[in-house]
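Subgroup meeting minutes
Present: P.N., E.W., G.H.
Scribe: E.W.

1. P.N. recapped why we're keeping a running log of single-chain structure predictions: easier to compare across weeks, and new members can see raw inputs and outputs side by side.
2. G.H. added today's entry (491 aa).
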Amino acid sequence: MIPFPARRLLPLLLVAVLPACSLAPAYQKPDVGPLPASFAGQTQDGLWSPAHPADTASRGPWWSVYGNDELDRLEKQLDASNPSLSVALARYDAARALTGQVRSDLYPHLGVGASDLRNRQSDNRPLRGSNQPNEYSAETFGFAAGYELDLWGRVRNEVAAGKANEAAAADDLASAKLSLEAQLADLYIRLRGYDVQDRILKDTLDAYRQGLDMTERRFQGGVASGLDVSRAKTQLSDAMAQVSEVEAQRALILHAIAALVGEPASRFTLATTDAPLPVPAIPLGVPSTLLERRPDIAAAERRVFAANAQIGVARAAFFPRIALDAAYGWQDTGGELLTAGNRYWALGPELAMSLFDGGLRHSRVQAAQANLDAAAGQYRQTVLAAFQQVEDNLTLLQQLGKEAHQQDDAASAAHDSQAIATNRYREGAVNYLDVVSAQTAALQAERSAEQVRTRRLQASVDLIRALGGGWDSSQLAEGRTPMSGTAPQAR
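Output recorded in log:
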């Protein structure tokens, strides 16, 4: 014969060993429709080819494709000191801690308690015996344990949702890191673009000063008019104003870089250099790899999974919560507490279930389903936005590559026109207005060419960001970027 209390617990133990169920719907990743075999901009004009082998590289120090040591140093400083990254990291730590909280319900909880109280009972206490004292001591020391039998998967679904939210927070951190790194690279490219423009303008100032000296000498010799001198002075002053504007814009970019790398703008400096940055070759995988590389897409997918698990949590509320409770200890009103006669124990199941709640549980299930629909819609929107960003920047890189060649041709022709106009002015064949017009056109064409180069570099950063980050050298495309010439390999 099975002794008590094991006889009472046997049915409960049999239930506990049965396979527990989950009331969450079977998870399916939201459908985003059929994916194309390649990006539209990838095959246009045969200028792009797929990355090899399959895209499994880490997002890595992708900025190394620009081959610039100072940019590499700044990116590392950003990763170590940017305050926004510390915020994203703290949010990830909080999500991880929440996962630990819900995971604790998978295990039994054990507690210990003790008390030593001095009590006085009422003279009119119901059922009080005549021989009971008015005042007495009560000593208690014991252990308690409890364990919820997760028959309906409530706890397991909460843990699954917590893990998914933790993974989403990690992806949010990666997305924030990638975004800030791209922002820094974009600012650095703009800064170096302003350095090149500053050099162009200062070279032009030297030419304009020489032109003004020549015009003043011709005026003193009675060959040129005062109008020619005035035009030369106006042109020089206008170029000097452009230098001031470029230097002001460079200072603002420098201050923004200082904030990103966690330094006060007042003491942050970067030496000027007009060494051009190369436009890198960027490998492209098939479109389906974009869904695996982009951290924002991964975060959106994990939130869909978490919302799906929360439906199981809401549905479990329709079923009883069954727990196994146990207690063991000693109680005494004075004297020797830890003796055999003062022992107490309790062991048995506990069941709790709501019978009527005015539709509360139904509403929670509906809310969980609505949250799933919203998360799925956000996932699809994130995927569509990612494809748009890739295609936008592919198109922009291709068109800017063509524009760069056209603008370089225009700058070369403008410099030829400037030289011809200056020589003819020396010979007295044209007036100084022709020289001013040719010099202005040459300056504008050269500055425009540099602006196009800067925009191409910015578009390459945006494309890398749209593709989800970096790669290693074995994954570089075998093709080339549009009219980019040679480009450094990623490391």
